[in-house]
Amino acid sequence: MLGRLMRAPAALAGALLLTTTATAALTLAAPAQAAPAQADPLPPTAVAMGDSFISGEGAGGYVAVTDQSGVSQGFPGWAADNSNPFFCHRSANASIQVADLPGIAQRVNLACSGAQPADMASASSARPAGRTVAAQIDQLRQVAQTSDVDLVLLGLGSNNSQFTFGGVAAECAGRFVADGYTGWWEVWIHFINWVTGTELNEQACSDADFATGAQIDAARAETTAAVRQVLDVLDEVDADGEHRIVLQDYTNPLPEAYAEQYLEEDGRRDTRDKYRALVDERYAAGCPADVDSLGPAHRFSQNLGTIVGGAAATLQAERPDADITYLDVQHAFDGARLCESPGSPANALATPLRVMDGPSGVHVTSFGPFDKFDIKRVTDTCSDYYQTCQESWHPNVAGHQALGRCLSGAWAAGAPTVRCTRAPDGTISTS
């Protein structure tokens, strides 16, 4: 029960049989004694479910993850297969861990980086590029055996059968880098999407390159169906029937416009062919993407909001007695996105885009000394070992702290929709 501290005792199985008049008289004379209240044996618990923006991707401090066979998996090394459950990247710094949640005694993170709606009811290993973890609903059932689930923070939608966040991010970054490092005459150098392995063109990403309207509609239907499954299981396993589910959407790591210093370098902008110095500058700052991709990227973020908000609205209408909150965090990083102001990435709430030169564990922070062959090598590393670059463009530690404050506001408000915003002075507020 939300805010509940005590559970009513079980009813007495029967009354005592009085066998003598004296005993009966004594019993009638004694004041009635209420049975002592029992403390709730199950701790009020908050559970995180969903994908990387919930698991804590980008915030470090990743903990061991139990695989679907029950084995705890710690860090397996950067050259390990990306299917290893550790790369769910469940962080001790995730928003579920740092949020102020009065009445909650325990927090459990079941989210997994890369998770898709289908992973709620099925093990993600059943699909391509999945990790070897049990279905998140099955994990939730286990948690409910020893915990009273009062809050579920759920983030779904940015990865689905139609598109994935990592795929579209790598597409747009890869196009910018390829165009900046090669000329139109160097067609024999094939740059590929760092995640999907498909060959890139060198045009700035358009709206359709992120997701089409049909893909957004299909993703919303998938997400709604998956959340419905989570609600069904919560109704089944939560003994007191009182729990809140918070559906959180996504922040965009890039600004609507770059700060002036990131628009031109060595006299060249990204509107022309070959602009290596500008690629180097934006990569070092964490934002290697075309100016012309920023508008489509923000419209894509808004579409992710319609996926999550649409799922919430549908289920709120279906289940008017359910406690469902849509948490809109699209403006939670305003003024603190990558390259939004000078000093990026140190002053941003998102991680910079970073690759490694092989599965070394050391991120390349500058392209400065590289030529086009070096660039192809390091970007191919991300394609071959996605875990080496999967933190890119996710909330960092400070970003997850901001999202934790958003969650605190949603927990306190309990409203159907809660919007979380960041003011110019850095204050995070909800309304």
Automatic annotation (TrEMBL):
<dbReference type="GO" id="GO:0016788">
    <property type="term" value="F:hydrolase activity, acting on ester bonds"/>
</dbReference>
<protein>
    <recommendedName>
        <fullName>GDSL-like Lipase/Acylhydrolase family protein</fullName>
    </recommendedName>
</protein>
<feature type="signal peptide">
    <location>
        <begin position="1"/>
        <end position="24"/>
    </location>
</feature>
<dbReference type="InterPro" id="IPR037460">
    <property type="entry name" value="SEST-like"/>
</dbReference>
<keyword id="KW-0732">Signal</keyword>
<dbReference type="GO" id="GO:0006629">
    <property type="term" value="P:lipid metabolic process"/>
</dbReference>
<dbReference type="InterPro" id="IPR036514">
    <property type="entry name" value="SGNH_hydro_sf"/>
</dbReference>
